[in-house]
Structure formats: structure tokens, C-alpha cells
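Hi V.,

You were right to ask for the full record rather than a summary. Here it is.
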Amino acid sequence: MQKTVQEPRQATRRREVVRRRGASPEKTAQTRQTIVDAALAEFLEKGFADATIESVSKRAGVAKGLIYRYFEAKEALFSAVVQQEIVHAHIDVEESKRGPSETVEAFLRRTLLVSIRNIDKKSRADIARVVIAEGARFPALVEIYRRDVIDPLAQKVKRLAVSARKSGELESDYLAKNPHFLLAPIWAGIVLNKFLDKANPVDIGEMFEAQLDVIFSR
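Predicted structure:
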């Protein structure tokens, strides 16, 4: 009799194990993508403070509890948005991707300038706006953006500046010591367009190109 009772229980356990294994990797990736896309829309529409896990779940069409299986907190969601929209989508400006006879200036115009020209057409400038507007209240946003966006980009510019100095493209070590000098028009343009003068937006791409002209003029 005991054996008869045990067998159904074992079968039930096997079914439970199968269910716990969850969806396929493709389905899991798609669910995560849906959640991150919904979070992006919420953050850009409402800001970080007013966006909630519940509102993200409604927009994504998934249960609130499911989001916590992927992201432990709202900050983790924001980090995923930054990774998707900026880090993974960013034009690669690694020194190793520069052509054998390509100057640093030409490389920056071919890669970074093209990306900056489209910054207002993408969500990148609006993500930066959220960080600038709410970073004082939520330092984690600043840390995420600094760690994942600003510091890596500055380091890449620094390495390129060192190469440009060695090849004679640059006459001093100023850019290698101050890589943010090249990137300053980006942040200035975002602040002007998103906060200070929305009615008269500046062209961030043109500002960045002018900065390249100044830095590499000889």
C-alpha cells in the first residue's frame, strides 16, 4: 500500500521540478527585454522617483513579482536600462579598433562623432537628464552612470589621446590628462537642451565636432 502512495508523490515531484525549471532561455531573455523596455519608458516619462515596480509591471504586462526575479530593486532596473541603451549600443572607440594608418582624429570622427550626432534622437540624452535631475536625491543613479558610462568613455579617450600625442597629432598632454575636455560639449548640450533652454536647442553633434576642430587644430 505504501508503495502505491509513494509513486504518485514521486510523479508529482517530477512535474514540480519540470515547472520550476521555468521557461526556455529565449523566453527568459524576451521577458527580461520586455521589462527593461517598459522600465525605460517609465523612467523617461515619470522620472526615477515616480516610476514604480508596479507601474513597470503594468506597462510590461507581467506580474510585479516576476520583475523581482530579474531585478532586486528599482536601481537594478535603471542599471539594466543604462546597459541596454548606452553601454551595449555605444559606438566602440577602443584604441584597438583604430585602423593601422588611421589618425586618432579621423577615428573619433568616424565613430564617436557619428554617435553623438544621434544622441538626441535616441534615449541616451534623456537617460542623462534623469541622472542630472534626480542624482542628488538618488546617489545610486550617479554611481551607475559614472561607473558604466562616464569613466569607461573617459578612459578610452585618454588612451586615444596618449596615442595622438605619441604620433604628433597633439602637441601637449592636456587631453590625456583631461579627457573630459573632449566630452564637455555632450554634457553642456544635454543641460542646455533638457533644462536651461528647451525652446532653443543646440546641436550637440555640431558642438562636439567644433571641439574636435579646436583640439586637433595645428
